Amino acid sequence: MRRLPFPPPATRRVAAAWPAAVAGTIALSLAGEGAAHAAPPAPPLSALPTTPVKALPALAATTGMSTYTVQPGDTVWAIARANGLDVAAVQAANGLTADSVIQPGQVLLLGGTPAATAPTAPAPAAPAPAPAPVTHEVQPGDTVSAIASAHGVSLDAVLSANGLTRGSIIYPGDVLQIPSGSSAAAPAAAASEAAPLTAPGLDVEQSDNARLIIRIGRELGVSDHGIRIALGTAMQESWLRNIDWGDRDSLGLFQQRPSMGWGTPEQILDRERSTRVFYGGPSDPNGWQTRGLLDIPGWEQMPYADAAQAVQISAYPDRYAQWEQPATTWLEVLG
Prior knowledge:
Elements: H1 9-16, H2 20-29, E1 62-63, E2 67-69, H3 76-82, H4 87-93, E3 107-109, E4 113-114, E5 134-137, H5 144-150, H6 155-161, E6 175-178, H7 186-193, H8 204-219, H9 224-238, H10 265-268, H11 271-279, H12 304-312, H13 324-334
């Protein structure tokens, strides 16, 4: 079929004032030999692709939208020019690209904008009830960091809610306020999802052993200075790991020796027992058979390394001193 030429500019200006559907009909029905631009030759019908026509937006969902049914030999460029439209706008309105091929019988959208579908307003949600205040009564062995972790909140949040600092000591029977946002049902999920808290320079295993040393120290009423000595001693002796080997028959966190009366190998490898033996004092599992930190007269006035050496009797007594500052940080973070 012969392609219809484009109307001259004057004709297009008149047509542009009419509805787009009428303008399109007139533009395509006019014939003239003086068109400013000749349309490209039409491809033979046998060359048209046989793939299904791309689905177009539903006409029912449009407002002010006119349409045009593609005739053999039409191009998007020619249809847009005939209707005074921008080619890119026609392509965009129909989901076409510069490489798209239109086919006879295909219906194109020529103007207007798709009607916006008003979203269904969701029913207003009922206001959430105010969360009940959550508290925690301190039990023997509790630490602020452990309590915070169990309730899925940060250590700093618990400290702030209770007017505490990282150097504060909590005692059994104290009642701590747990910041809002936590709940009694959250601890298990929070504990399983949150990564274990580690202290600077320590991995998960070392941090866990450090927390145990801190917890037992708190239970026994040991001062922060004494807990720092225990942390540094364990780091020097075993890298804060419960190892089953060492110099001669030394074992465990504090490298205690069965041959020197510190317990059986199994007892020494019991982290909690060996820590209590290091602290010593009235609750020492070894009784008076060994001498722990609390059994050293005037230990609190001793330099850090001297107090550790008084318990350990090491061949390298000066090496404990290097852990005093790191142990201070570990206690602040984990205790």
